Amino acid sequence: MTTKLTLTIEQSVAEKAKIFAKGHQKSLSKIVNNFLKEMVDSETDSVGKSKVETLGGSLPLPKDFDEKKALDEYYREKYGL
Asked: Could you tell me if 6 and 42 are in contact, meaning their C-beta atoms sit under 8 angstroms apart?
């Protein structure tokens, strides 16, 4: 089931996103849907811990590490936005 959603974003971002979508032969709706789905799905695993928290102890992280900021930067780089 799908639903219509209206977003307000910067014009330059919209233009770049349209070019990106066309270059990858995907609709902008599909790209935004996948991006949001991945964001929501990556927030928590089945027991309510973030994916980063489930890796606790695997790598030492700085005390000032901001998981939300790191995820945001990752998605911006991944989707070129």
From this structure: no
pTM for this entry: 0.51
Domain assignment of residue 23, yes or no: yes
Sequence-ordered list of residues with C-beta below 8 angstroms from that of 38, at least 6 positions apart, any chain: 75
Interatomic CA distance for residues 32 and 24, integer angstroms: 13
- Confidence check: pLDDT of 39 > 60: yes
67 assigned to some structural domain = no
Tracing tokens 């936005």 back to the chain, one arrives at 81
Cβ proximity of 39 and 75 under 8 Å? yes
On whether the CB atoms of residues 9 and 79 are closer than 8 A, the answer is no
Residue type, 54: T
At residue 21, the pLDDT reads 93
Tokens 């770049």 label which residue? 16
